[in-house]
Fold:
Amino acid sequence: MRVDDRPVPAVVGEHPEPRWPADLFVAIDRLPSYAYRWDDYVATWDDPPERFLWDDAFTQVGLTDATCDIRGLEIEVGSPDPEGLLDSGHVTLTLANDVGQWSQYDPNGLLRDYAPGQRLEIWAVVDGEAWWLFSGRVTDWRERADNTVEVEAFDWLSEWNRRPTAEWTPGTHDQTPDQRIAAIVALFNLPNDGLRLEATTTGMHNAATTATPLEEMQAVAVSDGGVLGVDADGQTVYRGRSFLAERDDQDVVPVVPDTERNADAVIWDLALTTDDDGIVNTVELTNVAGTVVTADNDWSVTAHGEAYYSRTGDQWVDSTDGADLATFLAARRANAYVRVDEFTLHLHDPRQDL
Structure:
């Protein structure tokens, strides 16, 4: 369990008996429904008032366990690109719908139980500890003719990318990145499940903008050399340059090697990549006030040739902070490095002797 993860929610409905090292949970939020009860002759909904039949009220059903009906599940979460920008987490989920248990319409064509906008929560329990895999909101609910339902969902990054209707000013002058990100979240009342923002010291400009909230927060992040994203538990996370030193908010992570049959899960189709796409050794940064800073890495220029990188629109205020950032980028991206390009992780792996 990561130290700062939010607790996994309570769910209603049956859950299959665990038979694998990783016990998967998939929970979907239902629409509020009517809770009918016999008329108490006080509160009525029927018309005219003297026609007492029954009373009703909306009741929130809550998250329903969908694990028993899973026929397919794919979770896609990309690593940061060389700029430190993340894509939205994306889920495609296929459910069996043999008796209409996941149908979203009643006979009149009205939404009944499930719809776009509802929450989708996915986690797995390994050795008694919960590990979040995804938290977000349903965007598509497709009922198929073969008695299946395909559900698609994205995390909060997708919702933050909606264009404002007018020019706006992000926060106050000289705010640090964590302060600015929190201010933007509050200004637009952005959906999130909590903020986990590392405090750094770089002061930011607050120039008027027509950018989306996500674009503005990402601009703040890259102007500090950090990374902004939504964690698997739905919390908004910002890490400064220290993200290169790995996370410090979690215990030992379960190992999933391809060569150890007794691992909790096995990775397939691992691909390692070394290329020059991320190499940078000559950096020029310009902030929104027109201040220009530069940095070079002579060793890298000699080894790989000049790899020039320029960026405008940075938001750091002090040229010293800008120069430090340029030097950091020229050093961090000066060499080619091996990275994991892609792999597939199966929690229920058929190769294991269970």
